[in-house]
């Protein structure tokens, strides 16, 4: 079972994720919440604007989920992924990944796989805003075509 979405920054909510992955057959659940941190590359960050190609991001999230299920040979896993689009202030969440599986090792593996692959493959762009009133689009990871 899978839920993926690109949402307005005010709609990211861990309670929604918790409800989605709740399963009495799952022995473990894990939540990854990516927050905007104060310092990046020795610059004082006050917020980030995320932009995304929504349709492609959703397609890639689903593909990464399918690959993770296959890679770790999971029969049952519930996964919730929401990424913010728009301005996210310092300390607020930009992404939530929630996973529930039968065993804790599966839960850790799948969660880690999901975030690492999303960071590499999803067409999501970040513009950082700094305390000194400046801003810049960050360099992303080049998409590798096979």
Brief sketch in words of this structure:
It is built from three helices and eight strands.
Element pattern in H and E: EHEEEHEEHEE
For the report, how would you describe the main beta sheet? Answer: 8 strands, mixed
CATH topology: Aldehyde Oxidoreductase, domain 3
Helical/strand content category: alpha+beta
How large, in whole angstroms, is the Cα Rg?
Answer: 16 Å
**Spatial gap, N to C terminus:** 28 Å
Describe the protein.
It is a single chain. The protein is an alpha+beta fold and 146 residues long. It has a single domain, classed as Alpha-Beta Complex (Aldehyde Oxidoreductase, domain 3), CATH 3.90.1170. It is built from three helices and eight strands. The protein has helices spanning 14-21, 54-71, 104-121, and strands spanning 2-8, 28-35, 39-40, 43-52, 77-89, 93-101, 124-130, 135-137. Strands 1, 2, 3, 4, 5, 6, 7 and 8 form an eight-stranded mixed sheet that branches. The two termini are 28 Å apart. The model has no long low-confidence stretch (mean pLDDT 94).
